[in-house]
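If you are new to this repository, start here. Below is one unmodified record pulled from the training split, so you can see the exact layout before writing a loader.
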Amino acid sequence: MSEITGQTGLRNGATAVVNESYSFACMRCGHGWEQSYEIEHHVDGEGREFVMYVADGQVVPSPLSRPTCPNCDNHVVRIMRPGRVASVRDAVHRQHRVPSAGPVEVPSVPADGTAPKQPHHWHLADLLHVFQRKAS
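And here is the target side for that same chain:
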């Protein structure tokens, strides 16, 4: 999750740079995303240490303070280790791949004439329901 870079490539007087990545999931709309940050360690004029979070070349607030969902602007966001959102997306992508050419199975219609049951399509929100708090 963290990697400290050496003294090369430091900018704006940083004494060290730590690279960290996180996965985020919105508990309101189910949107998931991942972001990598360069955490620059600095010392101010009075000798106090402080850090700056940089994402995509822009200084941003700490993702640990009050993350905001880019989809719905909600602040009820779960922070997870990196790779969690990507692994869910990969699983969904594997589910939706087009099958290779070959024999095609024609769905059978039940004798009562009702439509055959369709398979359930999973969404990130379906997988995140275990993290939602139950009302007391």
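Two things worth knowing about this chain: Residues 108 and 116 are 7 Å apart (CA to CA). The beta strands are 2-5, 16-26, 32-43, 49-55, 58-60, 77-80.
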